[in-house]
Amino acid sequence: MSGAESAGTPVRIIRRHGLRYGPAREADVRRCEELLLGGHGLTHIGYYTGGAYDFTLSLVSGPVAGVDPDPAEEDGWATYDRDADDNEVEDHEAAGGHVVHDMAELDQELRPADSGDLIRFVLQGRDAALFCLRVARGQFLFGVAPTPPPEPGDHPPQPAWVSVQAADRAMSALANDLRASFHQRQIDYGGWLWLTEQGLESATPDDAPVAPVDNLAELDARMHDSPELPPTDDPDLYADPTGDDPRAYEVCRRYLSADDLHYTALCRGGRVMLAVDVLGADRLGHFFRGVDVPERRLMYREFGTRVEERVRNLTRGAYLTIGERLARAVLDVEQGAVFCYPLTNGDYLLAVTLDQDKVQLAEVKVAHLAAELTALGDGAPVSGPRR
User: Fold this and answer.
1) CA-to-CA dists, residue 247 to 144, 239, 240, 324, 341, angstroms
2) Which residues are 263's β-sheet partners?
3) What confidence score (pLDDT) does residue 161 get?
């Protein structure tokens, strides 16, 4: 029994073709159908060329209005060439067009960092997460996965990324399957290939070789046991400025490491209030070829001054699908990723890893760092990472 069927509700796939669809794309459609029915939490997949879809597929429960069931359907599943109205599907298709357009703009905006093309974009809100992956130049795979409600008694609630991790990984695998169909090499979207090579199912602390949360707890214990934190003039640590809350600075630098999380900034009202990084660490020197460390810092700072406006624009085109409240945005380039997490009172956490292998592990840290900074904004005392 498939994951979609296990809910006990009859499920149908609404299928819609765009102008670029042709018989040669049928194999791609079948790959997407299999993924939708595979129990990964995805409810919508589309393939876009430019801002227009080639085809879209959507899971819906029960009969589809205006469409007669196919008497030849097998195993309780039916595929329809869609002409019927369905507002939710149309919302997803519109969101896909917006996200593809936004991804092209963000790609240009991130180019000064010299970290390669933007290959994966995740936008998650209260209701759903959107995934957009660059399959080839001008061609994108788009997916929607609803965000499950918090489990009763889940205090604190698990980070947003955990609930859609299976969908994220499945979309990355599908994008590489589609690339293989026209003889292109794999891309390490989100660092999932590295995790697979390590024999890991996820970036959770139970099975990671460098368990992020456990290691953070050990680091937190060392910090509390020793009254002496690393000096601000440490050659691997850079801060600009310390901001109006020294506790936020202390929290941010405790999460930084040359292993995975390399840059953090607290942004507010078009200003970068605090930036702390280890970009100058000797171990990271091989990441700086076309630009140097000060240039990279400046680029991230300039991006941070626009992050609030950027978030508003991103959510405006997708809020009918993800909901009005953004939980996280991930801009995954060929060398690392940029993470954006809303905090409280209009503040945003901007964080960066330069290492593509460690994108998932870095986001474990970012999620816990965002929780600590949120607690600071709510007046709670600084605490260690939540286990």
Assistant:
1) 37, 13, 15, 30, 18
2) 277, 352
3) 74
| DSSP letter for each residue of 66-131 | T-PPPTT-BTTB-EEE--S--HHHHHHHHHHHHHHHHHHHHHHHHGGG----EEEEEEEESSEEEE
pLDDT at position 1? 37
Is the C-alpha dihedral spanning 85, 90, 91, 92 positive or negative? Answer: positive
Point out the residues of the chain with pLDDT beneath 50.
Answer: 1-3, 5-7, 65-85, 155, 205-234, 380-387
- Provide the Cα torsion 213, 219, 225, 227; round to 10°: -130
Tell which of 141, 169, 197 closes a domain. Answer: 197
Q: What is the pTM of this model?
A: 0.83
Output the pLDDT for position 217: 43
245-276 CB burial, b ≥16 within 10 A, e <16: beebbebbbbbbbbbbbbbbbbbbeeebbbbb
Q: Are residues 286 and 325 in the same domain?
A: yes
- Say which CATH number the domain at 178 has: 3.30.450.30
Amino acid identity, residue 290?
Answer: G
Distances (CA, A) of 206 to 169, 196, 201, 260: 18, 15, 10, 18
74 to 71, 79, 97, 181, 233: CA distances (angstroms): 9, 10, 32, 27, 68
Q: Which of 132, 162, 197 lies at the terminal end of a domain, its last residue?
A: 197
H/E element, 375: helix 359-377
Q: Which of 235, 336, 325 is nearest to 280 (CA)?
A: 235
Parallel/antiparallel/unpaired status of strands 79-81 and 11-17: parallel
Could you tell me how many residues make up the chain?
Answer: 387
Sign of CA dihedral 289, 290, 293, 299: negative
Query: How many angstroms separate the first and last alpha carbons of the chain?
Result: 34
* Helix %, strand %, coil % of the chain (to 5): 40, 25, 35
Tokens of 124: 């998650």
Q: Which residue has the tokens 């609630």?
A: 157
